Amino acid sequence: MGKLDKFLSTADKIVANFKGEPIPTEQTGIDWAWQVTKLSMPQQAIFESRKQLNLFLAGQGAGKTHLGGNLSAYYIEQFPKVRGLIGANTYDQLNRSTLFRIREVWKNEFAWKEYNEYTGEGNYVVGIQPPAHFDTTTHNFDRYNNIISFDTGAVVYIGSLDNYKALDGIEVGWAICDETKDTREEAIKEVIIGRLRQKGMYLDENNKLTHENLGNNGIELTPFNPFYVLTSPAKVDWLNDWFYLTDSEDDIKLSIFSDTSFFSQSKENRFVTISSTYHNAKNLPSNYIDNQKANLNPDLQEMLIYGCPFSKSGGEFYKGFSRDKVVCKLTYNPDLPLHISFDFNVNPYITLGIYQIVQGHTIHKIQELCLESPKNTTRALCKEFSKYYQAHQAGLFIYGDPSGKRKDTRQELGYNDYTIIKRELEKYKPTLRLFEKAPSVVMRGNFMNLIFENQYRGITYLIDNTCKHTLNDYQFLKESPDGTKLKAKAKDKTTGVQYEKYGHTSDADEYFIVKAFEHDFNTYLRGGEKTKIKKGKYNRNEAR
User: Fold this and answer.
1) How far is CA 429 from CA 27, 247, 267, 352, 395, in A?
2) Which residues contact 115 (CB under 8 A, 6 or more apart)?
3) Which of 100, 298, 363, 538 is the 20 to 30 A CA-CA neighbour of 197?
4) Are 502 and 468 in contact (CB under 8 A)?
5) pLDDT digits (tens, 9 = 90+) for 291-342
6) Taking CA 430 as the corner, what is the angle to CA 352 and CA 347, rounded to the nearest 5 degrees?
7) pLDDT, tens digit, for every residue of 417-449?
8) How far apart are the C-alpha atoms of 86 and 82, rounded to whole Å?
9) Is 0.85 surpassed by the pTM of this model?
10) In which region does residue 498 sit, left (phi positive, over 0), alpha (psi from -120 to 50) or beta (all else)?
């Protein structure tokens, strides 16, 4: 059960604890404490949040944009001098979906209508010069393109995040972004967050919102500039990392697969709720959820109905991977040999996987080393390894990309990556275990999937929970049309260098696993044993 479920269990508690701006109802015409009780419990939790960064992650039809309508109405009505921003990924989405539904909320919940010049009635205009009777005393615009202006003087910018640089010059006090799962990370972190700096909203000593910037003791109050992400789930690593979702995976899964409970978490300046479509069932057609379930496979049901941010979305390269099966806390055993595997790509980092083989057929990945510039060299990687395992004396086996054997890889006459490695790690008396040529990406990927799915030929692969890059690879790496890894390109925002975002740690894993278990891999290539193997003792002739 989410932590706020009990706290927000009744409408009376919502009214009693509402932290809104204490403007008398008779002055504003809106009883906000009562208005909040009309929202679902997960929506209420976000509405009540006084954190700067807020994520409402929910299934399809869970009322994300409806919440956006209420949030925007609250700030527009209570803080008309504080400018806001409503953004979506494209102008089509902004106009046809996001603003369409938000304006429906404004109309149905608050009786706000777009101004009609023929009747002279209405509360706001979109993209045009406001009529003369609108309050424009705080406006300073040459044009009103992409601006919603209210009769009270309130202003809301609207923008498409596929052209996020156009938002660079604005300054706002609050912002709402819709379906952020499809938004580029830099659009949010580099532009939107940097625009949230207009003064005008403050948190008092009781964590309530106020216009006043000084408290009763004369000390300046805490400025409040909230940002709301309202989105259906997808396997988006930067969003998961930003709101610490991966760290809370077990708690999330315990909370969200329910008609009544939901997940909530407050950490640092972030607040998140994750909830299923069931929480908004009363506002949907009675057969909507059942129809969705009938049309979706189990993985998509988890994602699009229950809001799970970890479910398979389709097209994954590692179809057999499941965090539940392989992720745990592992420890180094000084009495066992170490197996290390290199991937020599230098951007975004150079990679070393560190493993131990337990009881002949269980692999423990105990650590990953991923060094970014300026330490992204083979020599620096070896020195980093030595810092962690200075006293190791039980043997060292080296694996990795066979291309590292080329003499020109480090532009030193007579040297390649592996001669550098052997020299740097000489004290461990290492043994090289390398392929002459890297095995097929498709076949070694299939082999890994069999291990993940069925513990093929008794092989079990476990990964320490600190190996973040490795886990991201197995969760987010997609399959290309030819069956290989789709190594999508990203660009370093500082250097402009393009790099492959995923695939480096999993490549290192595969170089190790298919070589260390070469007999099993060759059996697979010959079309040998493919049936599920029960866990138990497995005798091997080859020493590990």
Assistant:
1) 81, 38, 46, 18, 7
2) 121, 122, 123, 124, 125, 130, 131, 134, 151
3) 100
4) no
5) 988 888 888 888 889 998 887 777 889 999 988 889 999 999 999 999 999 9
6) 20
7) 999 999 999 999 999 999 999 999 999 999 999
8) 13
9) no
10) beta
